Amino acid sequence: MDKCKICKTQTKPVISFGKMPIANGFISSLNADEFFYDLKVLFCPNCFMVQLGQIPRPEMMFGETYAYISSTSSAMADHFKQQADEIIRLVSKRKDPFVVELGCNDGIMLKHIAEKGINHLGIEPANNVADLAKKTGVRVLTEFFDQKSAQKIARAHGPADVICASNTLLSIENLNSAFEGFNILLRDNGLLFFEDPYLFDIVSLSSFDQIYDEHIYYFSGHSVRELAKRHGMKLVKMNHQDVHGGSMCYYIKKGTAGRPSAQVAKWLKKEKGLKLDRITGYKRFKRNVDNICRNLKNTLKKIKSGNNQIVGYGATSKSTTLLNYTRIGPKTIDYISDNTPTKIGKFTPGMHIPIKAHSQFTKDSPPFTVLFAWNHKKEIFQKEKDYRKKGGKFITYFPKVTIE
Fold first, then answer.
1. Distances 380 to 78, 204, 292, 377, 402 between C-alpha atoms, Å
2. pLDDT digits (tens, 9 = 90+) for 98-138
3. Do 207 and 257 fall within a single domain?
4. Structural domain contains residue 2
5. Do 95 and 185 lie in a common domain?
């Protein structure tokens, strides 16, 4: 039986997506071997943590050639520039401040910290993106973060004034060890903050494609408050972000003194309204997921019956869950357009849809395009305004299937 990874309480099932390949496991050949695992989501009634049951080994997800490169999105570049500016303000009056980022990727945020001459360290286990970060002048430690690495960093650099992470903590299976590491590394008056896809948004939009192997945990204010309390820390602030289809930034301090901001109470109340603190809040989620999948397949089938070309836009990790759960493959979607060099020329995990350069999309100007990178819709619609003016249609599917 599945026990909670945080508190060891018996969990309750939320939804199962069946056999699933590694989300970022884009293959170079149709004959390549692929690893499959059972993608099932569980809820802990004790500490409220929503989590995956089975998890592939970390090196299978974050190895030598991790496929996601943050800087390919201008919207994300703007977002992380703003985050860097916030950190610079936080440490501006501190003597010799030290900033640590978990999962620094290609240095998209930390490079701004480095440019200011602030002592910093990025923790990035994927070698290929760590190398990209180093080229921007970012100091990087290529390993996974836990208690041992925290002790090593503290000995070498001293305590951290700020520890931050974006779309990273949800990927650390042993979160208890990570939080013990935060306690070791963080200065007494320091601040930990991290942002990840927000469970409230996932359930509200039924955006189930946020669920895949790298995303082990799906945080809410309730679960983060309990996790912090478990390690003698306190959730003091919550700040909602529009990135990645709805994210939450959680601010945590050492100790249990002080009052949380009014925003914490506001979001906890909203979560209770959606019943995210009990298993009954997730029953409607599965029904909505299956309705979206059925409607999307029927829509694409109808379009294809008219001999129309359909392509995809954005070979995203999240599209792996959608494509494999719905069994939508290359007979329906001709190819997926992407601008990430590490993905072009490869095939999607499991369903094996070819990935082609954006120039092919521009050349073809297909009549219908499934927007797999839906969380960057505003940026993409602006970029592809000429395509839409010519009559090209984008198909989105959260919270319902829409052609626009």
1. 15, 23, 22, 5, 16
2. 999 999 999 999 999 999 999 999 999 888 888 999 999 99
3. yes
4. no
5. yes
